[in-house]
Amino acid sequence: LVNRAFHPEDSIVNVSGVKVGGNSLAMIAGPCSVESFEQVLEIAESVKASGANMLRGGAFKPRTSPYSFQGLGLEGLDILCAVKKETGLPIVTELMSPDYLDVFNEKVDLIQIGARNMQNFDLLKQLGQLDRPILLKRGLNATYEEWVMSAEYIMASGNENVILCERGVRTFESYTRNTLDLQSIPVVRKLTHLPIIVDPSHAGGKWWLVESMAKASIAAGADGLMIEVHNNPECALCDGAQSLKPDKYGSMIQEITQIAKVI
Ligand code: PEP
Ligand code: MN
């Protein structure tokens, strides 16, 4: 079902009215984690003014240490919904447990499956039963075949609205958090008809790497970007080092729009 050979034209996924794929770019921005209503609202209003068309924010966080901030859970989800009401931006947030399938299906515009759950096959099968589009991030060390087959799981279970997200893979390099695999963009576009977006924030792990990698991703044919933006990165509860300040996000989007025009 994912195979380009049986579906030559690009698929366009509609996320609550925002088209992803074809000529439309998904510009997803927001904090790593939902911290408070005021925080998310301030960030959402500024990224929207800069041209973002979807809001991200983690309510359930997959953290390496059990002692790190785990997210606000359902309270965080309610904050996202309240900010959506204020701004009109569709919301993107990560689902980790099948326990919350119904509430996500009801409230979340684009359900994110994180790198660590890319091969949680039972969860993937259950996503096939939902009506909501799915953002499937590439696993920490997943091959293209493995990643694309995970999309196939969701589609084979009945949900064909899948967007892929490259977020960097583990390599021998430890200076950066991960290594952004720009080649995945043309490869995925060759193998599949699905939209592919890029998350340069989790790829590099450093805010000053985000702009150049975001531009390169669009130049390489990505259908959008997911970028972490925080109004006070030094005090962020998660991933402050890779978060852009709102004004930086704004200037970057201006240049990216120029690049997108010539692609
Ligand atoms: C995220 O986008 O919040 C996240 C945890 O990313 P990843 O699953 O790619 O590590
Ligand atoms: Mn993060």
Structural account:
It is a single chain. The protein is an alpha/beta fold and 263 residues long. It has an eight-stranded parallel β-sheet. The chain has a two-stranded antiparallel sheet with strand order 1-2. It has one domain: Alpha-Beta Barrel (TIM Barrel). Helix 8 packs parallel to helix 9. A hairpin with a 2-residue loop joins strand 1 and strand 2. The protein contains nine helices and ten strands. GO terms for molecular function: 3-deoxy-7-phosphoheptulonate synthase activity; aldehyde-lyase activity. Its EC number is 2.5.1.54. This is 3-deoxy-7-phosphoheptulonate synthase. Keywords: Transferase.
Summarize the structure.
This protein is an alpha/beta fold and 263 residues long. It has a single domain (4-262), classed as Alpha-Beta Barrel (TIM Barrel). The protein is built from nine helices and ten strands.
**SSE order in H/E notation?**
EEEHEHEHEHEHEHEHHEH
Strand-pairing-aware structural class:
alpha/beta
CATH superfamily: Aldolase class I
Q: What do the pLDDT scores average to?
A: 98
Radius of gyration: 17 Å
- The top level CATH class name: Alpha Beta
| Biggest sheet features | 8 strands, parallel
Biggest sheet, strands in spatial order?
9-8-7-6-5-4-3-10
Protein name: 3-deoxy-7-phosphoheptulonate synthase
Enzyme class: transferase
EC number: 2.5.1.54
Keywords: Transferase
